[in-house]
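Quick check before the chapter quiz. The format below is the same one you will see on the exam, so make sure you can read both the input and the output lines.
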Amino acid sequence: MIFTLFSPSEGKRSGGNSEAIHEETLLFGLASREEILDSYNQLVNGQDQDAVLALFGLKKAEDARAYIADLYSAPTMPAVERYDGVAYDYLDYPSLDTEASAYLQERLVIFSNLFGPLRGGDLIPTYKVKQGNTVGDIAPERYYKDAFNAALDALIGDGEILDLRAGYYDKFFKPSRPVTTMKFMKEGKVVSHWAKAYRGIVLRHLSQQRYETVDALLASQIPGLACREILEKKGKREAVFDIL
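Here is the expected output.
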């Protein structure tokens, strides 16, 4: 069994269904998140516009309006649908069949700057926290590592880990088990920004084929990629891919 660790996106799709967040709709429940969520809710719905813009990483008040809402009553949608950025564009979740969708809802773990670790199917409202920002006095990466590191290890158990996170999100969870990461090369150079696109492509391929081992994934024909080599490092394996 493979669990894939993934980054969120600064962009969020608006809307959702009428169901609000509650204990049963979030990995590890709501109670352990209440301190940071309450801090966010008070700040966003308070009177300090400059503090809200700083939290969101925005300059104009009109750009912030879409995110001003009560977190606990706002409409929700699955996390894998909520995020809207390059990796999620290439994943193209809405076009996946039922089995691929179900796979991502259970096996994908996304590290949110507000909610911490989420399964792909966890229901969340729209929100905005610029990567690296604190929520009030709370640093999300430290808060969630302390709260959920052991619980995530227990959830994964003997499963394998494909770590497709951007480096910043390593701070949220340090697995006790070895992980496999991926690096993408084009004409001998490491791809940085467009690595997001290839992470989305890999995740889409994995969800469609539903491999049970990382070795099976690496041995497969991932669209647009060819595995050049697999490097063994302390505590992790790095698969290096050439972009075709």
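If your answer matched, good. The CA atoms of residues 110 and 118 lie 5 Å apart.
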